[in-house]
Every structure is written in structure tokens, then in C-alpha cells.
């Protein structure tokens, strides 16, 4: 690097000698100019910007790739904090640690809890202001409580309820209209809630569900366009009913979240899913809880004890309870599969998540005029720099 800069400074940034993965092309030996949080210029090969401002931070990106920042559409917590803590400090802790794994934006995700606790969590997100050098909270993923008790997973049973439009509208007011995605069990919707949510522009995701394949076909017609953590807390493929997992394979209007930690879904199943669903319909997520980035021990999730080892989080009954996955590790695992390329990873971690919550005009790709959410990575996806809204949020030492 030619000039010094500190994490969190808002100086213009010029990245040279970098391979840039743009929306429809790869630029070798290119350069990027970032100012005021926006990608201002993309230069090919021998092109360059003249007369850089005096305070510009210059990065030599030789042997590195510039790719769009990751968007985690489903994350409950990290670094000892959880969205349900309903404090500014909790969201700060999450937003500060996520750039280390390449996450530049995320949906703050709630869990089934008492309506009052959900109120507080949503009200907290509504007033939260992302700070310079943090991953940006771009909305809320309301996971539960409109889910099936027999597919509860780590969601507390006592607060589950059928889909209820009046209750959702109350929570959307609490969140100041920041709820972008909702997970619900479509087979429980007797009152047309799915269609109303879809008409409002909400990304409706089927999850914690006992839906059959026939149920899923009907749900897609009503407005369900996503599956929550594919294979987990849903019906798997059976030769007489291919269930919700089979729906991901067969129904082109469905995108599917995927926890690629090799635990929630085995490496062999990850390959099968990639072969049949493809990068154009997969959304890599972490579904991480507060123990991510923390040592093994006992942690809280929705008022329940979660027992965390080096690689997983479980309830006392050994059911999986979210993950401690870092999104770059999930991306690396997917890249190790047969046929997966860096452009495929970009689709699954940036393009698809941005499109799913109607933010592709701002985020999800490297293009002039878009938010400067940029990662500098090597060919193995090791994160060297993370730039969030034009500010260096992480730099490998």
C-alpha cells in the first residue's frame, strides 16, 4: 500500500492491479475508485484515474480479487450478542465483528419468543444506526413465531402461533417497516397471510414446516419464493412425497437458504443440492447464534441453554441450535465442491441475497454507482480487506 489509513476512516480508496469480478465480466489488472461510500469508477487494464485526492488510501491488489461483500440474510447473533438482546450494544458487537468474515450487510434475525420480547428487538433495530466501518443492518428477518411446532428445532414451543396478519402489521410498525423476510410454515396459513405479505413486497420464506410437495406448490402460487435453511426443520425427500426439499429441486421460483458448514447439511448433500438447484437459486447464510467468534461453553438462545463445542451448537437433546459458522468458511466449503467457481460464490453470497430483498439496485455486485461493499480475497477466498460502504472495516494483519 502506498499511503497509510486506519480502520474506520472515510478517506477515498483507490485499489490498483486487482482482478475485478463485475456483474457480467471479469477485469484483469483493473482498478477501482471509491469515494463517499460509492463505487465511483472501474478502470480496465492500463486505464487509471488521474489526480487522486491527496488523502486517498491506495491499495495494491496484486494477486487478489475484488468481489462484492457478502450479505447474510439469516443471522441471530455473534461475538456474545444476539438480536433478541434488544440493545444497541448487541447490534454493535455483531456489526463490528462480521466484516472479518467478509459480511458487509445482514438481516438482523429474530427468534420465536414472547410478543413483547419480539417488540423490543424490532424497536431496537428500527432506531439503530450503523456506524462507519461496520457491516450494515439492511433489515430484519422475522423467523417465527408463525411456524409448525413439530418442526420447532431450537425455537421455543410455547410462543408459536398461526400466521396472523394483524400481529405481523404490529411488528412491522415496531420495526419501522424494516422487516424484509419472514419465515413461516405455509401449511398453517388459513387466512391468506402469504398472499398479503407477498403483495406488500415481503420476502416470504417457508421454514420450520411440515409442508408436503403439494403444499409447497400451492404456497409458491400464493407468494412463497424462498426456503429457510434448506434441509433443516422441513420434510426431506421421500420416494412418495419429495417434500419441501424436493420443492427446492423442482420449483424454479424458489430460492433456498443453505448453511454450508458440513454439519447442518453433509458435504455430500451440499454437492447434490448444488448439482440440482444451482448457484442461481441458492443463498448462503450462517444462521449463527451468539457463540460465533466465542470460546466453547454454554450460551443462551431464546431463553434456552445451548451447548457449544469447537464446531457446533446444540440443545440439551442434541438438536442443532443455529450455527457458529463464519460466512467465508461456508463459501470456502462450497468452492471446494465439484463445478463451483468464484462467480458461483458471488451469486450465492451477494447477487441472490440482494435480489431476494429487493436491494440489487444498491448492493450485491461491483458496479459504478453502487454501494462500495467490496472484498479483496485470494483465489481460496481468504479475506484480506473488507470495505463496508466505502470504509475499510477489516484488514488482515
User: Strand percentage, roughly?
Assistant: 25-35%
Number of domains: 2
CATH architecture of the largest domain: Alpha-Beta Barrel
The shape is globular
Q: List segments where confidence is low: pLDDT < 50 over at least 5 consecutive residues.
A: none
| Cα-to-Cα separation, first versus last residue | 13 Å
- The named CATH superfamily of the largest domain: Metal-dependent hydrolases
Structural class: alpha/beta
Number of strands: 21
- Return Rg in Å: 21 Å
Total helices: the number is 9
Mean pLDDT across all residues, rounded? 95
Specify the helix fraction band: 10-25%
Q: What is the CATH level 1 assignment of the largest domain?
A: Alpha Beta
From the 3D structure, determine the CATH topology of the largest domain: TIM Barrel
Largest sheet: 8 strands, mixed
Q: N-to-C SSE series?
A: EEEEEEEEHEHEHEHEHEHEHEEEEHHEEE
